[in-house]
Design brief:
Helix content is about 25%, strand content about 35%. It has about 375 residues and is an alpha+beta fold. The radius of gyration is 20 Å and the shape is globular. The N and C termini lie far apart (about 50 Å). Bound molecules: fe (ii) ion. Fe (ii) ion binds next to strand 10 and strand 14.
Length: about 375
Amino acid sequence: MSQDTFPINGTDYVEFYVGNANQAALYYQAGLGFKLIAYRGPETGVRDRVSYVLKQGKIVFVLTSALNSDHEISRHVAKHGDGVKDIALWVDDAHYAFETAVARGAEVAYEPYTIEDEHGRVTLAGIKTYGDTIHSFVERKDYHGTFMPGFIDKTNNRNDPSCGFKVIDHCVGNVGWGEMNKWAEFYQKVMGFELLITFDDKDISTKYTALMSKVVTNSNRYIKFPINEPAKGLKKSQIEEYLDFYNGPGCQHIALLTDDIISTIRQMRKNGIEFLYVPDTYYDTVEARVGKIDEDIETLKELNILVDRDNEGYLLQLFTKPVMSRPTVFFEIIQRKGAESFGKGNFQALFESIEREQALRGTL
Ligand code: FE2
């Protein structure tokens, strides 16, 4: 067992740059069952931006908008639409993480600094990753407040039922043609991640659409980053479509882990969240493909939940439609029952069922 030279405790928060953080915050509460916990803006002495901090389980999302047009955040939103800016990683020593990453070739996003309030100290530092996305390193071992210095506690009288999200399971990056290996190697070289799985275009393709993917993970496996690049098919790759609309590489989806996907999806549907459509025919072959499972197939069919099996067990998952105006970022909802993989069987089954439906309609 080699020593971990880049210890990461887990994901700290994910920050989205959005056009209207105030309204987006309501979507995450009413639609996804998050709770508002903290806020930063002009009222707290920050003149150029507002941030709303939302939490569910251990998942923290920060929604940030600029208050004027000549601002890095406004330019980010103009270029990419609403999107993920920062996948922040929780570390014990932010200086060490930053210096190690930079010595191993990472580009600086911002230099380390420490902020402080009556609840303690937080040290932050940031490196760049694909596109305009960054990773902050967050050291909060001496901090006992709600989020971090500079933010005030903020709640409201909403009472949205939780959707049962526990933690972030994985965050997927879409990168340009031929760039998957570069970025998979970046995480291996800079942060000591290991390569978990490789999917080539034969794994994730149909006659029409294709992509390639490599999954990298840190030593405790709490952080999993699949990296996708487009592959040639008869039609435009879904990754290429993302790159066109996002104007370059970026985070494609965040997978949220639940331990009761049936309740989660039921609640989300009630909240008006829309999901990728799964044809009924998908369920005709589900038992043949994955064998016996605990859940009732009819219930899965009613809620459109997908199932896949690997050597360790099975998983249930479902993908929302894009949650931004541009068809870019979406969420995956996932429940793991032993399986540690990513639903490879569903890429095939889902794409194939969609095309089977298309063939029936004569639109393929
Ligand atoms: Fe995923």
